[in-house]
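pinging the channel bc i need a second pair of eyes. not urgent but kinda urgent?? the chain im working w is below, pasted from the shared doc
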Amino acid sequence: MRERARDAQPQAVHLRPGEEIVHDWRLIFAREQGGQTIDSAVMGVLRSPGGAHQLFVHYCNVDADPTGLFRRWSDRAPVHGIAHWLQQTARATDLELIERALTEERKNPLLRKDWFPGPSVLVLDTETTGLSPNQDRVVEIAWLLASHVPRQWRSHLINPGIPMPADAYAVNGIDDSLLQAEGSCPAETLDAALDEIAEHLRDDAVLVVANAEFDLPLLDAECRRHSLRPLAARVGVQRLKTIDPISIYQGVFGTRKGHSTLSTLAEMYVSGGVVGSHTALGDCYTTLHVLDGVLRQEGERIARYFTLHDTHQYTAGNDTPGAWLRPALQHLLDLSSS
């Protein structure tokens, strides 16, 4: 799955009548929660009427009708093309799962109404060609606006005009063929996305970014590269105030080996762990629930972290027994910038 595609031309179409699933070769992936399967996928081989063999993936519900099955040709590319197909299939499936999860949470919220000490949050994430603000480019930007329910979200794929390095492809599953087929113009896309984000931040949404010291400088560098106004200027501030759940965890517990990544914190604080890790929107969703989990499980400890420095170090939801002890917004901002 980490091999880079060279000649593969990935494509996905619905099954046609007469195509047969070969039942003696298939893999089933499932994620369970509370003893109930909530996400599933079946991968295997198809035999078409002409005898050609193809790979298939069937996700969401293994008992669904054939329109839930998608296939890609396996005989048009060498073995490394199949690895690329698996990577692209995982990414497409992640997008489907995240859209489904966000839509469901609009109806059945997972977050309590007072989970965060502010009116709403805007979670931002990017996927890039690498780690250097001076050299690397944004290839995907996504944001998620939420109160106790997801309210709005957007995801944009961007063609930066430079090759995608193999190391970056291994992380985010985005390659040159995908960017050329679906990526949009960097300047126009970033300009529109940052305008949308700034509008919500001016309306008092609090910016949340996991590992903000990486994403925000790289976005600023992209703005300079394309002669765009940076996000802070669009909001009307000199410096953005940002909540970073990774920095909050590090501020309270210290930097622990293996405990300072979004995926690790998701395994610790989110039921079911990471969802949608191949996409920027998936990381926005995970970041939202990591922050919620950290505040729920560590809220009192975070609040008491400030006891020696602030006599008004925390607020409680109410005065009844078992009230939720939580830190103030300023404390989360302080920990995020420390």
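so The mean pLDDT is 77. and The radius of gyration is 22 Å. — does that match what u expected or am i reading it wrong
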